[in-house]
Every structure is written in structure tokens, then in C-alpha cells.
Amino acid sequence: MQESVALSIAGSDPSGGxxxxxxxxxxxxFGVYGEAAITLVTVQNTLGVTRVEFLDADxxxxxxxxxxxxxxxxxxxxxxxxxxxxxxxxxxLAPQFRCxxxxxxxxxxxxxxxxxxxxxxxxxxxxxLPRATxxxxxxxxxxxxxxxxxxxxxxxxxxxxxxxxxxxxAVLVKGGHLEGDAVDILxxxxxxxxxxAPRVATVHTHxxxxxxxxxxxxxxxxxxxxxxxxARAKAYITEAIRTSPGLxxxxxxxxxxxxxxx
Length: 262
Ligand code: PXL
Hints:
This protein is α/β, with parallel strands linked by helices. It is 36% helix and 21% strand. The chain is globular. It binds 3-hydroxy-5-(hydroxymethyl)-2-methylisonicotinaldehyde.
């Protein structure tokens, strides 16, 4: 059988909780060979981000091209992309991907540092999101990308469907920032699926979004159908939050060693 390979195109978090580091650990945990093309470098730890440097679009494109034909991924995800030129280069390469593409439309770090330039949002919406198999916004990203208020399950459904119809992609709106159970809504182009897990009372959620979308990408690389990939990734991220190791003085990372379902 062909080896399962996942490529992350995302930013670096030297504290290892989010970004490319979280993606590689998660791919590995699912038994998937991980590749990583870096788009931006952050200086951060569990207390927050103090600096961000966006990499040159040529440098990002060359990293992706270097692996595409040599060790072709069976699934790809994008995370923080930085500036519009990078978004446009990735969108232009996407027809060559020949595998599922998960776009995590990261706009800000948890602490509010922009990880996508303001001027890149239109490029994301018009050029990259229509190339995605799945888009994974949190509540705030879903609101920004649709212009709709996204504050409860009904508005999550509306936003998922609106973004899905606009882009042709499946959309997973993540409700982790609401109160009560952590409920996510998937619009797959035909129907809604709901994923529910009990809320875990912890501040150690750094990298949750990256880790969740990386788990979905790993499962797509392993050829799981999308609704099952999301269900299995949801179980993994819930366990990873529940067992977060409490590292660092601030908002610590989730437990990337959590065991995937057999
Ligand atoms: O969670 C969003 C995110 C993505 N990528 C990088 C980050 C962060 C949040 O801090 O640092 C590199």
C-alpha cells in the first residue's frame, strides 16, 4: 500500500504547542509521515506571541514544490499563511495537489496577533478557500469570513452553509469558544453533522485548532471519509485537551500524545 503522507503549510511556534510543530506531532501520532513547509516564524511561548516574521512567498512556494513531486502528500493542510502573496501562491499550486486540502483559516493568534495580513483576507476568500476540501473556522473566523454573527448552534449552521455554498468546500465551524458542551458543526455540501463533547475546564488549550485540523488531515491522508475523519479527530482533540500536561507558565499546550481511536 502507498505510504500515507501529510504536508502542513503553516507557521512555526517554537514552544511546540501550535503551528507546524503541533501538526507534525499530530501526523506522527496517527502513524502518518509528516512534511512541513514554513510560512512564518513566531517568537512565542505559553505566555503569548512577541514577534512574527512572514517569510517570502518565493521561499514558501519553493518549499512546497520541493516535496510535491518527490514525496507526494496524500493530504495537505494550511495554517497561518502571513501575507496575500503566500495565499495566492498556494492557491495557484493547489490544482497540482491531487489530494484533500484542509484550510484552517487562521486570522489571529489566541492572543490577538495577526497571522494573516488584513489585505490577505480577500485573497483567502476568493482564491484559496474555493480550492479547499474542508475549511475549519472557529466562531470568530466564521463570522469574519461570512459577515454573519456566529454566536450559537443555529448561526454556526448558517455560517457553515453560507461559506460552503460560496466556496464549494465542506465547512467545519468549531464551537469550542461557546459555553456548555463543545459542539462543532460540519456542512458537507448536502447535510449537517454535529460533533459534541463535554467541555473540559482548563486554560491549557494552546494549539487546539492546529491540532484538530492536523488530526483531520492525518485521517484524510489515511483515506477516512470526511464525516468519520472529523469524528475521530474530535475524539482525539477532546482527549488531548482533557490530558493537557500543564507545561509553561501561561496557556499550555494540549497533549499531542493522546491516543487516537483504534
Ligand atoms: O492557533 C493559531 C496559530 C497558528 N499558527 C501559529 C501560531 C498560532 C497561535 O499562536 O503561533 C504558528
